[in-house]
Write a structure and sequence with these properties.
about 50% strand; SH3 type barrels; Elongation Factor Tu (Ef-tu), domain 3; 12 strands
């Protein structure tokens, strides 16, 4: 089974055991619906414990989530540093959208199938999502993840074809 990270627990919030999570998901409202199940991963031994969502709200970079099993700030604070994960479910994606984890590690080629590098990271900038591509012997380069640059994405084959314009590399 494959899991996706929703964020990392940074603190408790309030007196009812609500957890403050540094968010790394674009689907917080869907992932934290009342009754949804998520997993907390212990950073010391990678053990996973399931928790059920009671309520959710988002503010800035943070998700504030109340869970059935946590009812006081002390229990919430004890989970600081834990990662929050869910079972990967492609039904959350619209056509031509991808999980960042699926894009990482993809080979990047030009339209003539010349290998340019490998997606090292997917970064969010105010203007758009951008792929950081690492290449041997050269500095990383960035490719905006928009249709003018991205010609095709083959997640199964782990290949992304891009349009190379002058100055990109």
């Amino acid at each position: 089974m494959e899991y996706l990270s929703l964020g990392k627990i940074v603190d408790s919030f309030g007196i009812d055991g609500t957890i403050k999570i540094y968010s790394t998901t674009s689907f917080g409202e869907k992932r934290y619906k009342k009754g949804a199940k998520v997993f907390f991963v212990n950073p010391l031994d990678n053990s996973m414990t399931e928790y059920e969502v009671v309520k959710y709200r988002h503010s800035g970079f943070f998700d504030f989530v109340k869970f059935v099993e946590i009812n006081n700030p002390e229990d919430a604070k004890a989970l600081k540093g834990y990662e929050v994960q869910v079972i990967k479910n492609n039904n959350f994606l619209n056509k031509d959208t991808y999980f960042y984890s699926d894009l990482r590690g993809c080979k990047v080629v030009d339209e003539n199938n010349n290998e340019l590098g490998t997606v090292k990271e997917v970064e969010e900038f105010p203007a758009q999502i951008t792929l950081r591509v690492s290449r041997k012997g050269n500095k990383d380069f960035f490719v905006p993840f928009i249709k003018e640059f991205i010609k095709s994405v083959d997640i199964c084959g782990k290949v992304i074809v891009i349009n190379v314009i002058e100055g990109l590399l």
